[in-house]
Prior knowledge:
By secondary structure, the chain is α/β, with parallel strands linked by helices. It is built from eight helices and ten strands. The strands form two sheets. Strands 4-1-5-10-9-6-7-8 form an eight-stranded parallel sheet, with helices on both faces. Strands 2-3 form a two-stranded antiparallel ribbon. Helix 7 (238-250) links the parallel strand 9 and strand 10. The longest helix has 17 residues, at 84-100. The protein is globular, with a radius of gyration of 17 Å. GO terms for molecular function: agmatinase activity. InterPro entries: Agmatinase-rel (IPR005925), Ureohydrolase (IPR006035), Ureohydrolase_dom_sf (IPR023696), Ureohydrolase_Mn_BS (IPR020855). Belongs to the arginase family. Agmatinase subfamily. Keywords: Hydrolase, Metal-binding.
Amino acid sequence: MRFDEAYSGKVFIMSQPDVEKAKAIIYGMPMDWTVSFRPGSRFGPGRIREASIGLEEYSPYMDKHLEEVAYFDAGDIPLPFGNAERSITEIENYVKKIIALGKFPLGLGGEHLVTWPVVRAMHEEHQDMAFIHIDAHADLREAYEGESLSHSTPVHKIAELIGPENVYSFGIRSGTREEFEYAKTSGMHMTKFHVVQGLLKMLPTLSRRKVYVTIDIDVLDPAFAPGTGTAEAGGITSNELLEAIQLIAESDVDVIGADLVEVAPAYDQSEKTAIAASKFIREILLGWVK
């Protein structure tokens, strides 16, 4: 787990070779050990990088060019195949190293459980942080078929760690009755079905706060992102997610880190999912890395 030399594999477009000069570090979390439906998101980070080669370096949304932000692609974390507990430990320790360098951590998943150890590392540094969660699924289960380490449990774990009142979920359209009841009674903030409308309402309440943001690609309707493990009908468009990223960029919240998860390339021969994901990463780099 070294940051002192460039990753030898494919990197995100315009990644810089010098980690010292970088403001952000891109890293992959190739884990799908707890997926309950369709596996394959461990191949997401690599495919997002490959798709990025088709991007323009200039963003008309942000009116910025990728040459204006220095970032280093550190490649994927080497995770022990099939071992969720050890993988979580490896991810947490890895992100702590990025934080120690004073860099913005930008993770590529992988299943959504990978966000849990990242937030643990971030919370150790930022005790007063808030958490923005953009997703189709509530991810508020305490366990799935007896397993607490599951891609359906990370937001519940995070709520218990940082306090439910500091959790803001958007776009949610799937979950158990118990999950939605927890969201109502715990003090957390959940916007069902919509993302932009919810952000317009809630971002002012997060003014000047340190915020970590996670985006599950399945918040998009399967028409826009079929390449994901648990596709859910009724989602938002790619344009709406781009607008959401821009809204966060234009707000005065202090984004301290982010991830984009659940791209599973095998289910999308058109590659529209990875292409969209790479564009979202470009916008995050230009809009959220200060």
